[in-house]
Design a protein that fits this description.
Layout (H helix, E strand, L loop, with lengths): L1 H11 L11 H25 L5 H28 L6 H32 L3 H24 L5 H28 L11 H18 L1
Length: 209
């Protein structure tokens, strides 16, 4: 299912923090896992784009992030293993393009999630999607500025926020996986219907008390 694939891939993107490691092998390995994550995310968005149009743009953005991440790893390997000097300007441009595309991905992702939660009548999840949309916008602004290298403290804050925001986003995507049923699913009841039944069951239990 699309949301399941998206969730799995998104979890792997947290390994983009590989740059925090000192040894080169760890950095490359962590970055490679992040690239794998974006590859899986692209597949998940592609699957979801069949039913929700905004996921098509999220797919295009994640594919771009995949390419930019691969370019960053290539630059890192050339500098570390081949001793080839890469222009700081070039690497900064890659980072800034990555930051802007990262924002676009989450803009379209949460735009799609807001729509699908509204369409399926998941009011609580729809409110969460809106809040996360704003949270990710704030983080993306911090992310972009941190790549300018203005402050080491800001860069450290950026990595901490990145881990927190990624985990929160992944948890919400998993919620969508649990409760949103796409046409390809063959459950007798949609997940949104099951959730409504659970809420009704809780109300009955509270009424008996």
């Amino acid at each position: 299912m699309g949301f399941g694939i998206l969730f799995l891939g998104y979890i792997f993107t947290v390994f983009d923090t590989g740059i925090l490691f000192i040894d080169s092998i760890s950095v490359v390995f962590m970055k490679a896992l992040s690239i794998l994550g974006w590859l899986i995310v692209t597949g998940g968005c592609g699957k979801l784009s069949k039913y929700i149009e905004k996921f098509y743009m999220a797919k295009a953005s994640s594919a771009t992030l995949l390419i930019l991440s691969a370019g960053d790893v290539v630059c890192h390997c050339l500098v570390t293993y081949k001793g080839i000097e890469i222009s700081i300007v070039l690497r900064t441009v890659i980072y800034l393009l990555y930051a802007m595309t990262y924002f676009l991905f989450h803009f379209y992702l949460f735009g799609a999630l807001k729509d699908v939660t509204a369409d399926t009548g998941l009011e609580e999840e729809n409110k969460k999607a809106k809040k996360l949309f704003y949270l990710n916008t704030v983080f993306c602004a911090v992310n972009f500025v941190s790549y300018l290298g203005i402050s080491d403290t800001l860069t450290a804050v950026r990595y901490l926020l990145f881990i927190v925001v990624t985990v929160v986003n992944a948890a919400f995507i998993y919620t969508c996986y649990m409760w949103i049923c796409l046409p390809e699913d063959v459950d007798m009841k949609t997940k949104s219907e099951k959730k409504a039944e659970q809420k009704e069951g809780k109300k009955r239990k509270n009424a008996k008390k």
